[in-house]
Specification:
Elements lengths: L1 H47 L12 H14 L6 H19 L3 E5 L5 H10 L4 E5 L2 H10 L4 E8 L3 E2 L1 H9 L3 E9 L3 E4 L10 E5 H6 L1 H7 L4 E5 L2 H10 L3 E5 L1 H6 L3 E4 L9 E8 L9 E9 L5 H11 L4 E8 L7 E8 L5 H13 E11 L4
Parallel strand pairs: 1-2, 1-3, 7-8, 7-9
Antiparallel strand pairs: 3-4, 3-11, 5-11, 6-9, 6-10, 12-14, 12-15, 13-14
Length: 372
Amino acid sequence: MADSRNLEQVRADIDAIDQEIQSLINKRAQCAQRVADIKLAEVAEAHARGETGVEPVFYRPEREAQVLQRIISRNTGPLEGANMAHIFREIMSACLALEKPLQVAYFGPEGTFTQAAAIKHFGHAAICVPQATIDGVFAQVESGECHYGVVPVENSTEGMVSHTLDNFMDSPLQISGEVEMRIGLHLLVAPGTAEDGIQRICAHQQALAQCRTWLDKHWPHIEREAVSSNGEAARMAAEIPGVAAVAGDMALDRYRLEAVARHIEDYADNTTRFLVIGREEVLPSGRDKTSIIVASRNKPGALFNLLEPFRRGNVSLTRIDTRPSRTEKWAYVFFIEFEGHLRDEKIAAIMVELEEQSIMLKPLGSYPQALL
């Protein structure tokens, strides 16, 4: 009987805490609404002064990153810091939607890891808009149809997504953030599909590569077809008899498929990194990363000369990749990522030095490093 009374008391405590949490969340939402009112009033005053082209900025990536960093650093448990940050991400997403719902383009269709990355970064209150191509994501953000876009840029086992890098060559967009996603791949079929009825396995070429060894071992004689995305492969599996898809949990749920096998990726730590692209510069958050594209003169020691300022400045490089130049045969441009912000004095000095010794230098933006 004592145990029953204790349980009832604990449940009563939980109900009271829930009520308090709900009240505090609504107070936070009211503050978000006041922030929106202040920003709109500032813009109205600017327009009254004749300042055209001034628009309110409701989403500040560096501000959100700082809030999440503080949440993780002050967390005392028993919930892990990452779990607590996910909860607050959704609260911030819902509050931001009261100010201005964000339109976010992503490389679709529905059910892709890119959609999952968009939700992870912006929360479920953002309006996610699928695009058939990476080019389409860039176009939607450049035109202003969407506030931000999310595109894949790198996989831990298969390397860089070259099409994303190529888009940055001509685009005026800035990188606003990054998202890292643990990639779990499953072999999916329509309900009722027998294993001996599978005639073709479809997925994005990167997904097929990420589980090549497993497929070679278990399905060596079945045709494999690379398609535009894992989401498209899942749609095909749902609609075309004999087609199986390699895709993740979102595709499994979205297209109501069944898993023949789960976690078939060849490496357990298989991770894909996504970039958030936008039109505005992101201010320093205190824990930032910067991406640039640079082309050097074609001479011995060119790459060494580009990297030497980073060594002298004790700046950590996080990524170097090359892409063919579009203007000169057998010439290349370098995609370089490093820790720090373009507004940091040390980084600004390095940029001046690079500009002096390169034939092209294009900063792609500074942005908060992925936290979760």
